[in-house]
Amino acid sequence: MQTIDIVIPTFKRAHMLLRTLESIRRARCPSGIFLRVIVVDNNSQDQTESIVREFSASSHLCVTYLHEARAGRSAAINAGVKSSEAEYVGFIDDDEELFPEWIEAVAEALQTTAADYLGGACVPDFTGILPDWLPSDWPGVLGDISGPEEVVQFTSEGNAFFTGGNGVIRRELFLRIGCYNPLLGRTGQQSLMSCEDRDLFDRLLEHGCRGFFVPSMKVWHHVPPERLTQEYFRRWAFDHGASLTVYSRLTGRSTKRSFFGVERWIWRSTAGHLVTLLTPRVASGIKRSQAFSSELHLREFAGRLRGRTYPLPQGEMA
């Protein structure tokens, strides 16, 4: 019997969380797999606890409710990991839903690859017509995470990336490399800071852990209307840039070919985007989405520079 605990950190999304839980209940679970769900409530102050307990009482699933007082997605995930006794720990977010074959895909991949960890794709789920300004080269803003069409091993140079919104990790690895860094990531609805997944992925690679991207291991990621706005994209780009700088300063992971803490190739790329926007002949000949993409690159660059002035968060690694 193989045991898997799915940890769901949640904050003020009670009814969206119910959709997440329902998708797990509907997913096909092969024989030989014992699945448990751990919902970690990060001070939601809504109906989260009652909804989880009502769902647990009416479902065949084994569902555990936890409360984590320390603010932040990383702290919530760590609380779920520490409460787990399973061989593997899975992660999805409270605004996601499993594809029906998710558990089957995980079970098959663990059997055929002898993996230490697995990751899959996130498919954005939104309604309505997409705006013409939407840039195709910023999929991460909407949680649109794709990858190869075949199973491939994660590497530092590959085109597949592990994310905590859709992943499975052998639990004993956390004893070796540590849990999520609680000093990184979001801490509420206003903050769009990130890099907690990047940090964990970097440590998995550094420790030689064996991981694979599994294309059939998919989740839907709900995209609310407020995320399909230029203002949200602008905030995300700036905060992402600041997060990258804070992450580099906090962990000491930085490139030697940099100027003022920013890689030299990014300075060159930013100059190109600036020329694109400031040259009338060039700017008039490109699509709105291309122009907006250049603006976002400039905002991310500004965030990188601003991140050098942020006070580093204080605390210890979980």
List keywords for this structure.
20% strand, single chain, 318 residues, 2 domains, alpha/beta, Spore Coat Polysaccharide Biosynthesis Protein SpsA, Chain A, globular
As a percent range, the share of helical residues equals 25-40%
Low-confidence stretches: none
Q: What's the alpha carbon Rg, rounded to whole Å?
A: 20 Å
CATH topology of the largest domain: Spore Coat Polysaccharide Biosynthesis Protein SpsA, Chain A
* CATH architectural group of the largest domain: Alpha-Beta Complex
Could you say which overall geometry the principal axes of the C-alpha atoms support? globular
What does this structure look like?
- With 318 residues, the protein is an alpha/beta fold.
- The two termini are 29 Å apart.
- It is built from ten helices and eleven strands.
- Strands 1, 2, 3, 4, 5, 6, 7, 8 and 9 form a nine-stranded mixed β-sheet that branches. It has a two-stranded antiparallel ribbon with strand order 10-11.
- Helix 1 runs parallel beside helix 2 (48-58) and helix 7 (230-251) packs parallel to helix 10 (288-307).
- The longest helix has 22 residues, at 230-251.
- It has helices spanning 14-26, 48-58, 73-83, 102-113, 173-177, 196-206, 230-251, 264-278, 280-283, 288-307, and strands at 2-10, 33-41, 62-67, 88-92, 96-98, 117-125, 152-153, 166-170, 211-222, 258-259, 262-263.
- The chain has two domains: 2-225, Spore Coat Polysaccharide Biosynthesis Protein SpsA, Chain A (Alpha-Beta Complex), CATH 3.90.550; 230-307, no CATH class.
